[in-house]
Amino acid sequence: MSKKNAFYAQSGGVTAVINASACGVIETVRKHPDRIGKLYAGRNGIIGALTEELIDTSQESDATIAALRHTPSGGFGSCRFKLKSLEDNRREYERLIEIFKAHDIGYFFYNGGGDSADTCYKVSQLSEKMGYPVQAIHVPKTVDNDLPITDNCPGFGSVAKYIAVSTLEASFDVRSMAKTSTKVFVIEVMGRHAGWIAAAGGLVEDRGIPVVILFPEVEFNQEKFIARCSEMIDKFGYVTVVVSEGAHWPDGKFLAEQGTRDAFGHAQLGGAAPVVANMIKDALGHKFHWAVADYLQRAARHLASASDVEQAYALGKAGVEFALEGQNSIMPTVVRKSSSPYEWEIGKAPLSDVANVEKMMPAEFITEDGFGITDACKEYLYPLIKGESYPPYRDGMPDYVTLKNEILEKKLPEFTLG
Amino acid sequence: MSKKNAFYAQSGGVTAVINASACGVIETVRKHPDRIGKLYAGRNGIIGALTEELIDTSQESDATIAALRHTPSGGFGSCRFKLKSLEDNRREYERLIEIFKAHDIGYFFYNGGGDSADTCYKVSQLSEKMGYPVQAIHVPKTVDNDLPITDNCPGFGSVAKYIAVSTLEASFDVRSMAKTSTKVFVIEVMGRHAGWIAAAGGLVEDRGIPVVILFPEVEFNQEKFIARCSEMIDKFGYVTVVVSEGAHWPDGKFLAEQGTRDAFGHAQLGGAAPVVANMIKDALGHKFHWAVADYLQRAARHLASASDVEQAYALGKAGVEFALEGQNSIMPTVVRKSSSPYEWEIGKAPLSDVANVEKMMPAEFITEDGFGITDACKEYLYPLIKGESYPPYRDGMPDYVTLKNEILEKKLPEFTLG
Description:
Strand content of chain A: 15-25%
Shape of chain A: elongated
Number of helices of chain A: 13
Strand order of the largest sheet of chain A: 3-2-1-4-5
CATH topology of the largest domain in chain A: Rossmann fold
Order of helices and strands of chain A: EHEHEHHEHEHEHEHEHEHHEEHHEE
Oligomer: homodimer
Helix content of chain A: 25-40%
CATH class of the largest domain in chain A: Alpha Beta
């Protein structure tokens, strides 16, 4: 067997631990110099492959690669660029395979969510047809936690931990102030389609915090919501609201679209938190505070979950090991063996079963009234936020690494995207 | 000398480390049972004294009190309640002293910012006149960092660390995505009058991040601001903006008031971040993300600065020790001996010099263009965010303590506030 090179790319929104997966891929490749040649990374994700902006990862020292494990964001750059369907844009897929051919790439490690699983699957199929077979392995990553088969997705556990901890801390703050000041605190979290991240805020209930969650899975009912908040404030003196950016009215309109307009009269997106906070103020008259965590939540490597970091690394490593076993068109997965004590192992799923399937929150994870999480949900979530995995610090800030990312000399003609 | 009791109260907005000061006060009092009797705490701050809702801190175990050191928020409750001037509401001051008399309280430890320093000063003066002298010691606390004489204020260092780290992490995220997606990230931080917290975001410049700061000290100039962002995006591909909630137009109007209205047409306060983000979008067309850290920043004990925790504790401890030396009407302070290596010691300031004086950011801490911080500012800030002081964790979340806070039997007639 001739020694092929490998290609790795990061896709979609980055996370606190996608670089830990990159680290797992690269360190494992480096352990097999007899089997795999160079490992190239795409500059800004798959776009880097299409435009032939390839990074030779061997330019980076072992220490630098090891530091990726504790560095958030996408070290090689990522992109929001979905390859169209094979029918609509076959030339992009063909271009990918030409690039792979030109650089003698036989392994394709694609690190992303649902869209990239689909791309990965198609590349594997088309490469066969084009007579240049490439082993395509999808390494899962998404804070949305919506990939099927795998118990959970790297990136989610750390966001969940960040939201649980931040909600706890802010709630302690409000509790201190409620007598004469703020009685309502609203935190807005990511998750346009699924309430996994919002659910994590619900864990503070176990620390005695009165919390109301607004899920995208539950149609917003203003009357019931105000009644629930009022009840909580009467009982506890304050209330914490966790609102998903995807929370919406029965007609599908996002809460964030409700009438908030900028200086130019444009409807302003984002900002479900102020909308909800004002709603309570108007109905009940209480002073409020609100926060929008936005990128802070998915980039918060300083508060990453140790399980999440470990799994992100293990899935990257497993991707390479599966490839070396001759596997193709698969995604390594997390298989939960037990929640308490937490035990898991690596499994695998064929990409044909992963592509285009979205895993939603099970209905039994949301309480009947729609404002909280059930014990089953807590049992699912706790292992995922388990353990701390602190980065090293320098001068009071984490010592994150920035890669050189020098681009390889090109071999093929220019290519125009789209 | 008869053995007097002591009274402790938390005042104003709480912080990640005000409980560390409480811990310093209580543990030090407990070391001197021969000198100080009971230590009472005010339920919800000074209101607890006025309404005679006193907490007997001896009901809490040593382990619980030790846990205050790593617990954010105000363990006994705080309040936003400013005593009026002596002329306008002498009865409140007199009530305080009656309460102290009724409970044989000879030491008053008041933990807060500028307003509480003033109250503390007046109590000390009036108690003399009323023939029931109380030793009044002010323990400094404010994320606003605006108390005079002391080099810095407990609470600020931890917020500064949180903002520096969060800005760094979110900037890494944006840098990864900028090629095809978000090019502008805006984070809104606390500080209505002074830009100390916003300044901390400027530290990311030393990690290669292009950052533009909007200070309350600098009148907002939209044209120059857009030009600076545009320049940064051209050079780096993205830009991070740190906007203080106090950033304002030349006429004094806050940016957050610029035309953002809720569903009912009310001008919406808070939310300078979306205003600024939309401004860049309208001028330059780039995709943006924005975050509002709000309470998350001042409650983030999980990311507290070790210097800050240490100083918060030391100032509480020093307050008691000064009282035992017979000092009155003073505030223990942090005196900086050297920035590098960082060396500091405890000093003290008479409350007459502290009350009603606000310390603003020195002009030489802001760069000439008004958008950045100078080396002098960095030299000031770095020691304050130095070191990590992690709380213990349980089930993936910090193990913060909640006090019993049982109220002592009342001895005096009811009192109506205000």
